[in-house]
Structures are given as structure tokens and as C-alpha cells.
């Protein structure tokens, strides 16, 4: 089986590290920086060397996609639309597409621009990973279970293929709503940013995000999560797992303790950048460029479509939108979809073909 992994971020490194360990797989990498990659990748589990994986070819030539059986797209939501438009004509109709993560409406992009390809979209990433040395090594924590949405044309064989390929227990989602209406980064990261702005901002140094997380942050995140859960009820999505259940806790206090105790979360730095000796919000960070417009704003979009009030989510967007020099939400608590268009590269236009937007 020939696999092509598109992108060179943390999750791509983990896909390469896990799949390249199998002698039965031919793993290729499509990246803008092929010269920075070795032909093998060292894989660490909990910072202890575990194995070395083989990479068949690393290139920036899109033609590597021509004979790929599986194409894995792992990159930020804010660049996926343009990227898929560049590579779509090189992908065979027989290729099975995988996206991880799948926030930002990538399933709609697949339907629109690669309508004949089967695909699988991960609700959350299958690995918690950090690149140790770009193109050379990665530290990976493989999840035991992941939820995945399969396109309507997929069969049981496709489900089994993916499960066998990744050697992870896969729970099949019946709805695509959990993909882009997510309580992962669009809520946790944004709630963390709101807490940053409530603190001693601007800062004299950077801090891990969950070091500054406290019970007030948890209460705020749970407020956003409750609004999303109400939306899922309106949409009749039974597969939604709220934050308390996902992390196996029962209160804001226990959620705070849980988030602070997760080893991989301790490595997550706040989205701050040094500017003239002061650490301020990094407007180029994925928290700002990806998690807000492609995550939190999409939750607001569907809440607005369905007439649901979302005061916590509205407040969060209002607090972060100045860093994008945009007004996604106006004084009437309505999402400005024309402004959102500019940031989501018309992905929400694709979505609006299926739904009628109120307001």
C-alpha cells in the first residue's frame, strides 16, 4: 500500500512514525521543505526511544500523489482550502482520503472538490505528539481509541482497512457535526486565551497554557461547552461527549486538576510572542488564525442558523476578534458571515449551500 502524508507538522510526524514502522507500507511525505528530512524517523514514546521508521520518499512534487492508495492531510485549517485546490487534480479517484484533525469543515471541502473519493475524518487527532527535531524525530503518545466520520460511500471494508492500518480502535461517527462543532481546541484553547487576557497581561515571560488555567477558566470553558451541548441537542446529535464526560470528571475543580495533570498538556505553551520585552498575543498563532474562525465561529454560525443564544461563545469571540482586526460578532449578537468568508476562504459558503443562515 502506498501512502502519501501531506504536511510536516507534529501530527504528520506521528503518522509517519507509526506507519513507517510497518514493512508492508510504502510511506511518502509531501512537504514544502523536503531537504530538511532524513530517510528515517526516530520515534520516542514518553521521551524514550522506541523505534526507527522508514520513509520511502520526501518531495515537494505533487506528482507523488498520482499513485497513492491513501492520502493523509494533516495541516492547519486555515491553509487546507488553498492546499486541497492545488493538489486535487493529482489525486486518483481510487485514493482513500484521511484528515486529522478535521475541524474547519474539511469534509465539506472533500465533498465539493474530490466528490468521487472515499474519506475518513478524525474527530480528534489519533496522536498527542511533539516534533523533537524537524524531519528527524518525534515524541508520540498513541491514543487507544478515536472517533471517525466516514463518507457515505464507505463500506465496512474501508472501516476495517483504517482500523488495521493505524492499529487503533475506531468508533464510527454517524454524523459529521462533531467534526467541526468541536469542544476541543475551539473551546479549550479559546477559553485559555480569555484567561490570559484576564491575567497580568501583557506578561514578562511566556507560560504553559495550563499553568495559568484555573477554576475560573474551567467554569468559562464549561459555559461554552454547555452552549455547544445545547446546539447538539437541537441538531439531534447523540454522539456528543461534553468536556466533563470526556475527561472523566464531575466539576470545574476536578476539570482543572485533570487538565493540569495530563503530561502532554504540560508542554503546550500559551500563544504569546515577545514584542519589545513584553509577551503579547501572537496574532499568527493557530489559536487566533485557526481555532477562532474555523472553530468557535463555526459553532456560532450553526447556533445562529438554529436560533440558539450563546452568550459565553459570543463573549469569547468578542475578546479574541480584536487580535484579528475583525468584527465577527456585531452589537446585535449576530455573526457577520461576510467577514467570516474572508478568513475561512469561502468554506462557510460551501456550508451555506446546505443550510440557511439566519440574521
Summarize the structure.
The protein has 359 residues and is of the alpha/beta class. The chain has 14 helices and 14 strands. It has two domains: 178 residues, NAD(P)-binding Rossmann-like Domain (Rossmann fold), CATH 3.40.50.720; 172 residues, N-(1-d-carboxylethyl)-l-norvaline Dehydrogenase, domain 2.
Could you give the count of β-strands? 14
* CATH top level class name of the largest domain: Alpha Beta
Radius of gyration: 20 Å
Q: How many structural domains?
A: 2
List the uncertain runs: none
Strand line-up across the major sheet: 5-2-1-6-7-8-11-12
Distance between the termini: 49 Å
Q: What is the CATH-assigned architecture of the largest domain?
A: 3-Layer(aba) Sandwich
**CATH fold topology of the largest domain:** Rossmann fold
Quickly count the helices: 14
Q: How would you classify the quaternary structure?
A: single chain
The H/E string reads EHEEEEEHEHEEEEHEHHHHHHEEHHHH
Main sheet characteristics:
8 strands, mixed
CATH superfamily of the largest domain: NAD(P)-binding Rossmann-like Domain
